[in-house]
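haha ok so turns out i had the wrong file open the whole time. this is the CORRECT one, sorry everyone. sequence first:
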Amino acid sequence: MGGGRLHTAFSAGPIEAWFDAFANFLINYKPFHFASSAGIYVGVRFNIDALFIHTHISVEVGADLFMWGPPLAGPVHVDIKVAKFDINFGADKGDEKEANIEEFYYLVLQASSQQSKSRAAEEDRALIAEGEEDILPGDLNQGHTFLATSGLLNNSSSTDRVQNADWVVRGGSFSFVVGCKMAVQDAQLVDENGKVVN
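then structure:
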C-alpha cells in the first residue's frame, strides 16, 4: 500500500495558477489483486480590475482514474468545469477469490505449497468450513516461538539443541516468552485434556 500527493501553486499579481496530482495503490499478494487511483488537476485564475470593471476568470481541468484488476478495468472521471463525465473501460468488478484461513495460515508460516494442496488439506478445509475440526492442523507449535529468558538449566554436556525438546528449569527464577507468527486476539492455557486452565 502506498501513495502520494503533490501540490504546486504560482501567484504573480492578478494571475494565479495551480497544479495538483495524487496517486494511491493497494496490492494484495494472494490472491493477487490490485486497486489504484490517480488524479491530476490544473487551474488558472485571473482577476481584471480596470476603473469600475472587475472581472474574475477561473478555469480548471482535471481527471481521476480508478483502476483495479486482474482483469484490468475501471472508470476515468473527467471534470472540465462546465461538464463532468465518466469513461469506463474493462469489465465490471467481479468477485475476488479469497484465501481461506488455512491457506492464509500456511502462507504466513511459509509452508510448502504441496502440503496445503494435499488431499488431507482438502478434507481439513471441508471440516473447517463445517466447524467440525480445529482450524490449525498438524503441529500446533508451528506458528509459535518459545524462548526461555531465565532459569533454563542445561541437563547435559552436549551443546546440541533439539527442537521441541523438554526443558529442565529452575522453578524460582524461570520465565519464558511466547511469540506468535500471526495476530492474536486472546490466549488461553489448556491442560492435556483440552480444558481451559485459568
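The first strand starts at residue 2 and ends at 12.
again sry for the mixup
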